[in-house]
Design a protein that fits this description.
heterodimer; A: 265 residues; mainly alpha; 0% strand; globular; B: 464 residues; alpha/beta; seven-stranded antiparallel beta sheet; 27% strand
């Protein structure tokens, strides 16, 4: 159904990060917001993405924000870097979604919701780390990878699932010995994302706990956050609720805190 | 979201947070209609992967239960929860719990008619005395040995006794149980469950097309589990007598188990015996006696009165059958399958050693049977995706092979439907060796296709 050749071909086709993006990230890393904004606004697609995403209700701005310098100024260095990485992920997303009932706007909505709520969680945990804040941007890549690998095999998977409740990650792992999160890690390496990003996302798969206690805890929060979002109507309708397996036991110890932050009654 | 179906038990597995909005999105009208069409004996919603739910979230599934019960007589309920969730559900619905609650899927299976592993020692406790009794009756009828703890203290003490019980049931609740003529396969016998009062309605409740195709697929022993039958009238008597007569040409045997004639005229029993129907007090008397099973036809070769031959209509659809098989095997093994030869003759298996087989019948616009024969190691490989780990457990391999051939059947159904040919499929049957397969298939002419993937060979046979 899915072969290692197909996975390798997918990874090979991932383009390097565009030069304007690399330069923007370089300036953001050194805290030079003005220079980063100057470079960013030369990439019209990035500029449009930034404007679109930060004006979503979840960001809570009362008036429309339109200039890149203004956006970076309001978001600050960490969240600006996070948003630029989010944009990079969209470069991988398909023009037309086949496996999941997603549209470009729905995918952007998911990115925005995950990013804002991740920030809320990090504030609760009293963590102020630019790389950790950006880690959440790699998580939706798992959805893009599942779409890329399984879109042509949608009917087969449905048939398989009619007799056994298997998620895409388990199917891929049993067939090829590599899972969606391993492929996400390869993407992060190709795009020279900080190593911590892939480590947290690997832990967030729910079945590969990190040896590093702090990163493992962050993985738990990310896993629970993902399923909190995937339980929203919009994403259930996109068939995302069961694309990977929810590991309830893995997140049990943080649930009460999570419910408080998300104000779950 | 769709349910997974195995052995007549359909299971929904929602994940994450379940409130009114998410549950309604999870369960569309099409999903409910598809669940009705499954004709399952039991429909369960597993809460194993649900971390939060509220009343509105469960309501969507409770409404689905009601819809399924309108069309089928089926056991419905929630399963896989902890004590906190169990208490929450009871609290939400209080006096109106019209569905069942099973602490785990394993416990639920004890109450499903398809459950094969009988004669288990089951310790059970529920603070409601009528629930304790209802569960004990169901378990006893299912061939188990229920041990009821009358108090919480007694339960606690007994529960701590190591290895004393096969299963311990607590935090479970029985709603209305399903009461249709459900079918299950035990070895090579088909067991139908009949309950309460048997009258003219049995003709509507019994799937005669399924029964006839089971005869055609090679099943020879049909057991009616009649422990819960209160009485039968003359219409039901005529129905069973005719069923026995029509099965006689296939050399099939029909047995009734557990039927008492306290409220049914004893003359009915004599009439049924005259029609060739046999009566047994306990299921174990048949299933536990291999010699008797063999005599009754559950493993013996049987001469078929009307030997049917492969016809042109079936042969023209051969590509659909091959495509379905090849696509399924490729999907399960991640390798490319190659068709080597295709010939019409009686089934030929070159070397019988270490081979297992599975078959599935289809009926509707066309009818027939697909047989797959695998070397044991190749079957293991083909089933690895479903099992998820290496195993030498032959029962597990055969069980999974049945799932695989079920997928082939589903794919055949879908491919034929694309050509406007509508068929239904029977339950899959497995054969632990080639001799048992040949008992039903050796005289049948059909299309034999030798297939190979990664140099491993297996055999496809299509017959009527």
């Amino acid at each position: 159904m899915i072969t290692n050749e197909k996975i390798n071909s997918f990874i090979d086709k991932i383009p390097p990060a565009p030069k304007a993006l690399q330069a923007t990230l370089l300036f953001l890393n050194s805290g030079e917001l003005v220079k980063a904004a100057q470079i960013a606004q030369t990439d019209l697609a990035l500029k449009a993405y930034l404007k679109n995403i930060v004006n979503k209700p979840i960001y809570g701005f009362k008036t429309e924000v339109s200039e890149v310098s203004q956006i970076f100024g309001i978001l600050g260095v960490s969240s600006s870097q996070q948003t630029v990485y989010n944009y990079m992920m969209t470069l991988l997303s398909p023009k037309k979604w086949e496996l999941f009932h997603l549209r470009e706007s729905t995918f952007h909505e998911l990115q925005a919701k995950l990013s804002r709520r991740w920030k809320q969680i990090l504030q609760h945990l009293d963590i102020d780390d630019m790389d950790i804040e950006s880690a959440i941007t790699l998580l939706p890549a798992s959805i893009i990878v599942a779409e890329a690998l399984f879109a042509e095999k949608k009917e087969d998977v449905l048939l398989l699932r009619s007799v056994k409740n298997l998620d895409y990650n388990t199917i891929l792992s049993r067939l090829c010995g590599i899972d969606l999160f391993d492929i996400c890690e390869k993407i992060s390496i190709k795009w020279e994302m900080p190593p911590k990003v892939a480590q947290i996302v690997q832990a967030s798969s729910g079945f590969k706990p990190s040896q590093d206690k702090k990163l493992n805890t962050l993985g738990k929060w990310m896993h629970l956050l993902l399923f909190y979002e995937l339980s929203q109507t919009m994403f259930i309708e996109a068939s995302l609720n069961d694309f990977i397996e929810f590991q309830l036991d893995y997140v049990g110890e943080i649930y009460e805190d999570f419910a408080k932050i998300m104000e779950i009654a | 979201m769709r349910a997974s179906l195995k052995n007549g038990v359909a299971v929904f597995t929602p994940q994450g947070f379940l409130d009114g909005n998410s549950a309604t999105a999870l369960l569309t009208i099409e999903d409910i209609q598809a669940t009705v069409k499954l004709n399952a004996d039991m429909v369960l919603v597993s809460l194993k992967k649900v971390i939060f739910f509220n009343r509105n979230g469960l309501d969507a599934f409770v409404k689905m239960f009601a819809k399924v019960k309108e069309s089928n007589i089926v056991t419905v309920g929630f399963c896989d929860y902890d004590l906190k969730k169990y208490k929450a559900i009871l609290n939400f619905y209080r006096e109106h719990v019209n569905f069942s609650l099973f602490a785990s899927q394993d416990i639920a299976h004890l109450f499903a008619s398809s459950f094969k592993n009988k004669n288990l020692n089951v310790l059970l406790y529920n603070e409601d005395k009528s629930q304790r009794s209802a569960m004990a009756i169901e378990l006893h009828d299912g061939g188990h040995n229920p041990i009821i703890a009358q108090t919480a203290e007694e339960f606690k003490t007994k529960k701590n006794a190591q290895n004393a019980y096969d299963v311990i049931i607590e935090n479970s609740y029985l709603g209305q149980m399903g009461q249709n003529v459900s079918a299950r396969v035990t070895g090579n016998a088909i067991i139908y469950t009949v309950t309460s009062f048997l009258d003219a309605e049995i003709g509507n409740m019994f799937n005669i097309a399924y029964h006839n195709n089971s005869l055609n697929v090679g099943f020879r022993l049909f057991i009616f589990d009649a422990y819960k039958v209160v009485s039968m009238n003359v219409h039901a008597l005529n129905f069973f007598s005719k069923l026995a007569s029509s099965g006689a040409e296939y050399n099939a045997t029909i047995c009734f188990v557990g039927m008492t004639f306290e409220k049914t005229p004893i003359i009915f029993k004599e009439n049924m015996e005259d029609a060739g129907i046999m009566f047994f007090d306990q299921m174990e008397n048949i299933l536990g006696d291999k010699e008797l099973l063999s005599e009754l036809g559950a493993s013996s070769a049987a001469a078929i009165a009307n030997k049917r031959v492969i016809n042109k209509v079936i042969v023209t659809k051969l590509p659909s059958f091959i495509d379905a098989t090849v696509a399924t095997i490729e999907m399960m093994t991640n390798s490319t399958a190659i068709k080597e030869t295709a010939e019409i003759h009686a089934i030929k298996v070159a070397d019988h050693k270490d081979k297992i087989a599975s078959s599935i019948g289809f009926y509707g616009d066309i009818d027939g049977m697909v047989i797959l024969v695998f070397p044991k190691d190749i079957a293991k490989k083909a089933c690895q995706l479903l099992i998820g780990e290496e195993t030498d457990d032959i029962d597990l391999i055969l069980d999974t092979l049945a799932e695989l051939v079920n997928i082939v059947g589903g794919k055949v159904k879908s491919l034929l439907s694309d050509h406007k040919v509508n068929v239904n499929i029977t339950l899959p049957r497995t054969y632990p060796d080639i001799d048992s397969l040949l008992e039903i298939a050796q005289d049948r002419k059909g299309v034999q296709v030798d297939l190979a993937f990664d140099n491993d060979k297996f055999l496809f046979f299509l017959t009527r």
